[in-house]
Amino acid sequence: MTGVAVELTELTRLYGPTRALDGLTLHMQPGELVALLGPSGCGKTTALRILAGLDEATSGTVSVDGVDVSTMPANKRDMGMVFQAYSLFPHLTVLDNVAFGLKMRGKAKGDRLSRAAEMLELVGLGALGGRYAKELSGGQQQRVALARALAIQPRVLLLDEPLSALDAKVRTQLRDEIRRVQLEVGTTTLFVTHDQEEALAVADRVGVMNKGRLEQLAAPAELYAHPATPFVADFVGLNNKVPAQVSGGRAALLGLTVPALSGSVDGAGLAMVRPESVTVAADPTGSAKVTSVSFLGAISRVIVTAADGSVVTAQMASSAARVFSPGDAVTVGVDAEGVLVSPA
Amino acid sequence: MISARSVVRGALWVLFGLFFCFPLYAMADFSTRNLLAGGRTGQAWANLVTDEALYQAILVSLSLAVLTVVAMLILLVPTMIWVRLRAPWAKGAVEFLCLLPLTIPALVIVVGLRNVYLWVTYLLGESALTLTFVYVVVVLPFSYRAIDAALSSIDLQTLAEAARSLGAGWATTITRVVVPNIWSGVLSAAFISIAVVLGEFTIASLSGYETLQVQIVLIGKSDGPTSVAASLATLLFGFALLLILSLLTRGRRQQTGVTL
């Protein structure tokens, strides 16, 4: 790993009465890819822009490799950035775009052009150096933007929703490519997105933000399996909210008892159960009924109304869901290590 | 077979051409006419460079055009970029100030600037080139519109931030990233400003400076053909500028996809 440590400490950003960031603290390890995930307006882009030097924090500090860069202008911070909007310079060729940052650093023409060509090869666009931005597809433009950001060998790579303007297929391809390239160059990377699948797929750790605060920062699997707050559980994955009763660290729901995760309230509450943790079995004597079955390709969603009136969504392989039809009597179970129960 | 539509279109083109070209032809005809001996002469056109007063007036007007364009671009381009990036709340005020000269008669501007120009002439002398200051104000409305349209056609904030994140300072960002992408707007502003300066008579005349237009009027009282030759030369120069502008911006648009 060649990356550096990044520390955002107690960052607050006020826009008039609006608190875009509210004491955000985030420490990134050298070479790590951290994804900031959250809904629109949660402050994730503001945090990234403050780290880039494109915005100023009202209070708090930003340090890179142990040096406080809070007051350093953007052009001195040595950070590569890929923007949500297409940001290639229209008047320059692809090769000149990638070489631009090196030119700003006073590199000799031969050196910068060879480095730019090398970066274009890295993102698989070595043959397109002579084209202009308007002659490229959206995915290609973002690849070039990635090459341009990496060409300067930045201390930190910042990705501000770089895939959101792309169609689904290209988004998946480029997402994987970003991860491959990031692992190859080892640059500490902050990836901002509102797409939970994207965040879980590329990041070493995912930080879920809400109202300017970091609700939870954890490895994707940990975050998914053990959400720290109802907001995280709700935002990361489609969740069922099932009435539950917690007592002695166990939650009773749907006629079953499962461990209650830490952070759960005692007494009556709503258990957050992921659709893939819900099991449905055909049972003519069952008290639950299938309401609808939605085919989504490889998987299907089966919506079931339990005896107590609560509606539960189950997600399963389409081959398994084929046996269900609306009106079928079924029994519902929960197959989870534990559930988080929040106040009703 | 020629359609009625083609005939109408052709007729409109002929009418349009006559409307614009006939006065130019008449000027060219008059300026090459030997009024005393009859026949043709190029004396009026030769006078453009041999008549010392007229030649000096042409130099003054061209110098004023260049200085005005330079000052206008230095003042307006960074200001408009800065306002869009850092002070969007000030856009309305800047637009109002830039368009204001359109609504104020030249006579009022001259009277209003009299006291200011007492200081200008005290500090910089009586040179006609001091008209640059007032001409910069006069061309603001036209220049503002041209540059504003160009800035609106690009994602200024993203381009500027991309350049900054790659290590460019503000001056480099403006000169190497923003200006090349609003080049057609900058050229439009420059050429329109030149046309305005070369055509301005009232302010120069009331201020007592001898620019090309003032000189044309003076010469017109004693030497009609030379006066008309100078007017035609100014017009042709303006046409040439617009033609160059059109060719340059077309090439630029094809290259970058920037539209105005």
Structure description:
- The complex is a heterodimer of chains A (344) and B (260).
- With 344 residues, chain A is of the alpha+beta class.
- Chain A is built from nine helices and 20 strands.
- Chain A folds into two domains: 6-225, P-loop containing nucleotide triphosphate hydrolases (Rossmann fold), CATH 3.40.50.300; 238-343, RNA polymerase II/Efflux pump adaptor protein, barrel-sandwich hybrid domain (OB fold (Dihydrolipoamide Acetyltransferase, E2P), Beta Barrel), CATH 2.40.50.100.
- Chain A has helices spanning 44-52, 94-104, 109-122, 138-151, 168-185, 196-202, 220-225, 230-235, 318-321; strands at residues 6-15, 18-28, 33-37, 59-64, 67-68, 79-82, 156-160, 188-193, 205-210, 213-218, 240-247, 250-253, 256-259, 267-273, 278-282, 288-295, 299-305, 311-317, 329-334, 340-343.
- In chain A, the strands form four sheets. Chain A has a six-stranded mixed sheet, sandwiched between helices. A five-stranded antiparallel sheet of chain A has the order 13-12-11-14-20.
- In chain A, a hairpin with a 5-residue loop joins strand 17 and strand 18 (311-317).
- Chain A is elongated, with a radius of gyration of 24 Å.
- Chain B has a single domain (52-256), classed as MetI-like (MetI-like fold), CATH 1.10.3720.10.
- Helices cover 82% and strands 0% of the residues of chain B.
- Chain B has helices at residues 4-31, 43-50, 52-86, 91-103, 106-124, 131-152, 156-165, 170-181, 183-199, 202-207, 212-220, 224-256.
- The two termini of chain B are 38 Å apart.
- At the A-B interface, strand 6, helix 2 and helix 4 of A face helix 7 and helix 8 of B.
